[in-house]
Amino acid sequence: MNHLKIVSEKPTMKKHLMCSYCGAITISSGGTEFCSNCELTVKDTKTKLISLNHTLITSLDTINGFYKNNKFSDADDLYLNILKDTDDPLFLYTYAIFLIKYSNFKLSKVSYDKEGFMEDNANYRTASWKIYGNARMFLYNCIERIEKNQEIHPLQKRFAVFLSMMKLGNIRSASIELEKIKGIENGQTYNYAKIILDSAIKNYDQIIIGSENFLSNTPYPQNVIYYLAFALFKNGKIRESIKLSQFMNKNYPNLKYIELIKTIEKTTALD
Fold it and tell me: Could you list the residue range(s) of the whole structural domain that residue 105 is in?
């Protein structure tokens, strides 16, 4: 299957959707869509969300601005204010994702090129571990509160627990949640979740098969193409993967594609 040809010839309608939990923008061609950042289901435009809760959306916008400029501490303070004002457990999930990125940022500061690096590096590692530990705590708290919440739709509930288990690295529990999702809706959410699980267990052939099944229908979730490009890269189809990633990043900008392109280029340079 010529993946790039199929993707490039699909309908060009684009709709900018905003995640009401993390504030990330996902460019959609219609149909069911999943957030480009946290992977929760997204369906509304920023304009609509602002009309529903201007204060919240403004805060999420500001947080994303801080994140893009590596001002994690400022973003953290604002996120905690959001948590004080809501009982929705899904915000615990997106906050945990933010903390994982914050932890990774601290770890990225580790360097062996500066004088006196050992003490600084130890401090960065300690801070990173502490933040990551907090992220895991919030994920467990999220799962506990989701299970007690009767207002969340059953499919959204099981999918959120699945995503939380994946972030915790609990593949066994995530697999159980996947079957629960299938029992509720054996459709796009289940098939997308299966691709996420296949990615975690390095089942790249199944990712490609699952992605091609999505591509046979229009519209399809844009994140599927990222997983396809990643699987192609892991299966040694470097040229196809990078071309697909470059096309998607140009037409559906996403930091994931930029990072994947850098990883591919770094890997091929080492070879």
Answer: 70-152
Q: How many CB atoms lie within 10 A of CB 9?
A: 10
Rounded Cα distance between 267 and 271, Å, is 6
Return the H-helix or E-strand segment holding 16. strand 15-18
Q: Angle, nearest 10°, between helix axes 171-184 and 188-200?
A: 170
Tell me the torsion sign for CA atoms 103, 266, 246, 29: negative
pLDDT tens track for 188-218 = 999 999 999 999 999 999 999 999 999 888 7
Work out the average pLDDT over 29-42. 89
- Mark residue 86 as left, alpha or beta (left: phi above 0; alpha: psi -120 to 50; beta: remaining): beta
* pLDDT reported for residue 7: 85
User: Is residue 5 one of the residues assigned to a domain?
Assistant: no
Q: Residue 74 domain-assigned? A: yes
Count: domains in the chain: 1
- Would residue 79 count as lying in a domain? yes
Are the C-beta atoms of residues 42 and 18 closer than 8 Å to each other? yes
pLDDT of 11 reads: 60
Q: Is residue 100 situated within a structural domain?
A: yes
